[in-house]
Amino acid sequence: MWSRLTLFTGNSNPALADKVCSELGIRPGRALITRFSDGEIRVEVGENVRGKDIYVMQSTCPPVNENLMELLVIMDALKRASARRINVVIPYYGYGRQDQKEKPRVPLSAKVVADLLSVAGADRVITIDLHADQIQGFFDIPVDHMFGTIVLSDALIKEICGNEIVVAPDSGGAERARLFASRLKLDMALMDYREENGIHPRIVGNVKGKKVIVLDDLIDTGRTIIRTARAAVIAGAESVEVCAVHPVLSGTAVASIEASPIRRIMVTDTIPLSESARACEKIHTVSIAPMLAEVIKRVHFEEQLSPLFCEV
Questions:
Q1: Is residue 61 assigned to a domain?
Q2: 106 and 206 share one domain
Q3: Of 49, 135, 225, 271, which is most buried with the most CB atoms under 10 A?
Q4: Residue 209: helix, strand or coil by DSSP?
Q5: What is the DSSP string of 277-298?
Q6: Could you write out the DSSP letters of every residue in 127-146?
Q7: Do 269 and 156 reside in the same domain of the chain?
Q8: Residue 307: cis peptide before it, omega within 30 degrees of 0
Q9: Residue 55: helix, strand or coil by DSSP?
Q10: What is the CATH number of the domain that holds 165?
């Protein structure tokens, strides 16, 4: 059945795709992805895909619109080349933060992207740590939502000595932090941003003398994790480190992290690091490739994915 599986990749994160192919023991699919003189994307599939199960890997990370459009065009080329099934592997799902109407006259961009993927020919979506679980409901096709926090906890568990505590940087990440803490058999605390009655933002929970582990799904500007780290230090934490699945790290995020009290940041390779991020000694990467390869293998052979979700 391996002869019926081929993995193609766009230009967003070819290094990750190569690692996944290496884990699976297959070669990457051949495709020429170029630009016309006006910037339009041109795709030419370089091998026969008729009747095959195709996996297209593309993170919709910056430049988000460019990578998203590239993904859609690749999918259309494969569909028109008579691929049997197109499974889209999106390690980082861009536009995931626009998942609800928090005010009038704003779009549900996460839903728009889901519709575009379906129209372009996706039969299944495999993704990692959506910003909100409800995004799965925006699709009318199967969505396998995996958790990169499992990879991070597995990498961290060897260092746990029992004096650590997991901190959620906001209420939206409380459930994610709870599962992470449960997997590591640690207590958890929560960052409270309310500023009322003379009370400033603070951590709810005892972190004094503790090694704080701040958990988030992504780091963009870095403001959230840095604010949480400073609150932990004020509350008497011994040290602060951060675990985050998606290292977006836009703008001056890396410089801000360098100047912060954060001792270490552990991220995955769902998004390729910028040159400045690679040079930052505080940022360490754990590869998500073995997990993605296992998911692809199980989907291809129609095996259960639930064992990969076990908390302990």
A1: yes
A2: no
A3: 225
A4: coil
A5: HHH-TTEEEE--HHHHHHHHHH
A6: EE--SSGGGGGG-SS-EEEE
A7: yes
A8: no
A9: strand
A10: 3.40.50.2020
Tens place of pLDDT per residue across the chain (312 aa): 567 899 999 999 999 999 999 999 999 999 999 999 999 999 999 999 999 999 999 999 999 999 999 999 999 999 999 999 999 999 999 999 988 888 899 999 999 999 999 999 999 999 999 998 899 999 999 999 999 999 999 999 989 998 999 999 998 899 999 999 999 999 999 998 776 555 567 899 999 999 999 999 999 999 999 999 999 999 999 999 999 999 999 999 999 999 999 999 999 999 999 999 999 999 999 999 999 999 999 999 999 998 887 643
Residue where a domain stops, chosen among 113, 146, 179? 146
Asked if 296 contacts 289 with a C-beta cutoff of 8 angstroms, the reply is no
> What is the distance between the alpha carbons of residues 73 and 76, in angstroms, rounded to a whole number?
5
Residues 64 and 182 in one domain: no
| 234, part of any domain | yes
> Does 28 share its domain with 133?
yes
Q: What is the dihedral of CA 270, 276, 281, 286, to 10 degrees?
A: 10
Residues 117-154 as b/e (b if ≥16 CB within 10 A, e otherwise) read bbebbbbbbbbbbbbbeebeebbeeebbbbbbbbbbbe
Same domain, 196 and 176: yes
Would you say residue 57 lies in a domain? yes
Verify that 169 and 136 share a domain, yes or no: no
Same domain flag for 135 and 28: yes
- Domain-ending residue, one of 113, 131, 146: 146
**From its phi and psi, is residue 70 left (phi > 0), alpha (psi between -120 and 50) or beta?**
alpha
Find, among 138, 146, 233, 148, the residue nearest to 191 by Cα: 233
Instruction: Scan for tokens 């495709």, then name that residue.
Output: 31
Q: How far apart are CA 80 and CA 284, in angstroms?
A: 41
Q: Domain total for the chain? A: 2
Residue 198 structural domain: 150-286
Q: Which residue has the tokens 């073995």?
A: 290
